[in-house]
Amino acid sequence: MRLDVLASLANGRAGVNNFLANRRIVGQIGRKYMSMHQDVVAEISRLPDGPQIGAFFDFDGTVISGYSAFAFIEEQIKRGHLSPRELVELLGAMASFGLGKMGFSGMMLAMSQFLRGIREDSYAAFGNELFESHIARSIYPESRALVQAHLRKGHTVAIISSATPYQVEPAARDLDIEHVLCTRLEVENGVFTGGVVRPTCFGPGKVSAAESLVGQLGVDLEKSFFYTDSDDDIELLERVGNPRPLNPNGKLLAIAERRGWPVRRFGSRGETHITDWIRSLMMPASLVGCFFAGLPIWALTGSKRDALNFSVSLFADTASALIGLNLKIKGEHHLWSHRPAVFIFNHQSNVDLVIVARLLRRDITGVGKREIRDMPIIGRIMEAAGVVLIDRKNTASAIEAMTPLVDAMRVEGKSVCMSPEGTRATTPKLAPFKKGAFHLAMQAGVPIVPIIIHNSGDVQPKGDLLYHPGTVEVEVLAPIDTDKWSQSTIDEHIADVRNKYLHVLDQDNHPNVVKISNKRPAAKSKTRAKRKTRRASPGGDSALKSE
């Protein structure tokens, strides 16, 4: 039996048929984007400000595409942390719940036995790791936009999920969601006891969780919103004034149509089509083809520079057309007002290569990771184009390798493009800046030009192989003069530049913390749990499918 079907069983008694129906619905979604999802957040922009309005989000199928439990199960099978016997028991409990032979709390109690004796901090670390490697790229960009829109209005935003915190909290931190209300497992002295904290956050338990915010924060449920994909959440949908089904399963879709509830379906994540695979295979092939297209120019004119400029511009247009990439650019004139320069950009996606090529067009070179050299053909093309490939783990050798770029700017008049973050971020969150680009600008005596990419992860998040059509917003800030910079003040200048990014990206006003709103003292176990010697990520929570 496939694990995605099993995940649907744990999603509620809708069972396999509703799960498959939901997949079909998602697959039918059009791929039209408006600028930063203005169509999605238009309703929110018209609402009053203030914490009296709650915005509650289910997790699996709502905030993320698919099921977080699937990632837990899959990874634990790969690592050998789930024995065949445990897998059979886990699937049996899930199937019993899906068939209505066991309640949600009973299933959770059965599943929590797999965690007895395991340290909570180890399992939490496992959850954080899975968020970085799997779950982060499943967050719907549209759901992220909804969350951000409610946060900008000062609304009380919460995830209310029947999943456990180990599945939900890493995503909540990334989304700046302060309140997490979910099903919790008993912990004694930092170790799971095998018990479950009651009431669990399922069905009526979600209503109780939402009502707890009324007393704490003065939320008016009649003015509040609840976003979910599942009919298992009907009680809370009926309790709030603004029920909002997202990617609804079959039963919830029927209910929404009868009651006139507005329905939205997001297609930016989840099911893929043959065209997605074709465009994703053609994109790197276009890089090779465009490079070779420039060789006749080199041969006939003897100008490598003209040949590279032709290839870069051709690649920018060809790759954009293949991907379906549209750019909305603010401050485009800053790209040409001061050259040469060091152009810096926040790095979210492989598609940033196309974006940068399309913005800068000519007389550019850059810096990449040494591993690119090992890529067949493409590595050689990048080196031939003058891209400096550095060992990011060896600072001294990286600085030495970038020395020729100073001459490229001073003598050849070329500009350099770099990501001060050093590598792609897993999410849109801005990572700390490294100093290389800033030292380079100082040495060459050229300005820094910040390029701020808002949402290239919509087109291809880190870890995803496929490109999806979309509109990416880019803002180019005015060139920053580096003539008066010095070694003693460079840290201050880097901080100032990074703060500009944070401000434009709207990442400078949110607390980025998670408040455990429904945490209760763990019950004391009557008998001390037998400690297991197995590693820290066995079955358990991976099967504790949420909503």
State the low-pLDDT regions, or none.
1-35, 511-517, 520-547
Characterize the biggest β-sheet.
7 strands, mixed
The strands making up the biggest β-sheet line up spatially as 8-14-13-9-12-10-11
The SS-based structural class is alpha/beta
Distance between the termini: 21 Å
CATH architecture of the largest domain: 3-Layer(aba) Sandwich
- Indicate the overall shape: elongated
What is the CA-based Rg, rounded? 26 Å
Task: Name the beta content range.
Answer: 5-15%
Overall number of structural domains: 2
Mean pLDDT: 81
How much helicity do the residues have?
40-55%
- What is the number of helices? 21
Reported by name, the CATH topology of the largest domain is Rossmann fold
> Superfamily at the CATH H level of the largest domain?
HAD superfamily/HAD-like
The count of DSSP E runs of length 2 or more, i.e. the number of strands, is: 15
Kindly provide the name of the CATH class of the largest domain.
Alpha Beta
Provide an overview of this structure.
With 547 residues, this protein is an alpha/beta fold. The protein has two domains: 3-272 and 509-543, Rossmann fold, CATH 3.40.50.1000; 274-465, no CATH class. It is 44% helix and 13% strand. The chain has 21 helices and 15 strands. It has helices spanning 3-10, 15-27, 38-45, 68-79, 84-98, 104-112, 120-135, 141-152, 165-175, 204-217, 234-239, 250-259, 274-301, 304-323, 334-337, 352-360, 378-384, 395-401, 403-410, 436-444, 490-504, and strands at 54-57, 156-161, 179-182, 185-188, 191-196, 225-228, 242-245, 325-330, 342-345, 364-369, 388-390, 415-418, 448-453, 470-476, 515-516. Helix 17 (378-384) links the parallel strand 10 (364-369) and strand 11 (388-390). The longest helix is centred in the middle third of the chain and has 28 residues, at 274-301. The two termini are 21 Å apart. The relative contact order is 0.16. Residues 1-35, 511-517 and 520-547 have low confidence and may be disordered.
